[in-house]
Amino acid sequence: MICFIALVLQRLTRARLRETPVDKVVSPERALSALRRIQTHRITLNDQRSLTGISTLDPEQTAILASLRVKKPTSADQYVNL
Q1: Is the pTM of this model over 0.70?
Q2: Residue 17 in contact with residue 57, Cβ under 8 Å?
């Protein structure tokens, strides 16, 4: 079942990238490679206040997210780093 879901996601990603091409991104693998560079950060100041943030998206990452019709991540979103 997991393999089937992965195949469907891969095909959907490829189809959306073909609909709205992104310069230098020719495959779902290349898109994922670019999106993997997005990082989340969490710091704690004086054991009290915790601040979270997300790295600045470059134009390529922004274009890929738009092509895939995925909203930009924000620091308010909860993420699990794998």
Answers
A1: yes
A2: no
